[in-house]
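User: My collaborator sent over this chain with a note saying "see what the structure looks like." That's all I know about it. Can you take a look?
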Amino acid sequence: MKYIFPLLSILMFLLQSCELTTPAAPQENELLDGPLEGLSMEQQTQFLRGDIAFNDDIFTVEKGLGPIFVSNSCGSCHAGDGKGNPFITFTRFGQNDTTGNHFLEQGGPQLQHKAIPGYQPERIPSGASSSDLLAPAVTGLGFLDAVSDADLIALSDPDDVDGDGISGRPHWNNIRDYVAPRPNTITKNGKYLSRFGKKGAAYDLLDQTANAYNQDMGITSLFEPLDPYSGLEEDPEVNTQTVNDVVTYLKMLKAPLPRNQDDTQVKAGKLIFSQIQCAACHTPTLQTGHSPIEALANQAFHPYTDLLLHDMGPELDDGYTEGYALTAEWKTPPLWGLGLSADAQGGSYFLLHDGRARSIEEAILMHGGEAEQAKQGYVELAETEKQQLLKFLESL
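Assistant: Without extra context I'll predict from the sequence alone. Here is the result:
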């Protein structure tokens, strides 16, 4: 018994020491991941299943990986649900016009640059144009998915009727057989308004997810049954429930939360953002329409994108395209979560479609085309105004 009380004292000391040295939990606005508020118990359960499939499931040869692939899990490309980094890139190759990908029989549209033992990874075939890309952040996608076609069309100005030099246009593209059009969808010449992916070529999150399983990991599903290596139809290597769980997980991820919104420098930067025309493409506020997920329906949110295609000029023209986007056209990327990007990218910024910009300022200065006027507006700012704008962007 004489040893019990000293032992208890030591244990109490250790527990108190751990409490003193354990870092405080991060604030909600310092994290990209996490569910929407207002989900039902059933929705929370499906969100958790999707979270596990997205972030914890690692494919091996025994689970169907490959034989050629880019990565072995969803989370490895989207750490913490954030942007990818140059150490895990994906390369698309094929056409430099809108006549369709003429290299599908040679492995297009995606380069699988890794292979399981006994197989050789792909190489880009001669004559194909290509583009190196970083994975985007996946938070808030359910909000973007729930914006009505009509609202996006209202934001577009393909002929620059207002004469402001900005002519954002919807990406009208074909949809896959397994994709169900949204309620109140609008079509144009038999094509549908697509909004996901760097060039907005993917129609919805099922399209994006099933294709990612197939092209990124070599995993077949009921939706995408063709093996990328052989081109032959195979039994599903991921079941339909899991694919749907991941789609639901992506829809139910919260929107990134801004920080320091009462800071006077952030407020000044927000005004400058609009004054120099950044908000003409990076639309601050959008509105969702109908959604079967009640927490997403009829909500105003602040993504800083118009989900439209814009010509970004020769410096960002990568000579490759998808769907009916031109080579210099890119979908306006959402800016929400921008200030947290470096956390998911190993502590440094890797911005623009391929990560070439190492800072927010560098990314701004690489804008051209329809964004040339906004870039020049930034260049002409006083140094204090530039810092205010950058501080605002870092707060998103």
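A starting point for your reply to your collaborator: The mean pLDDT is 92.
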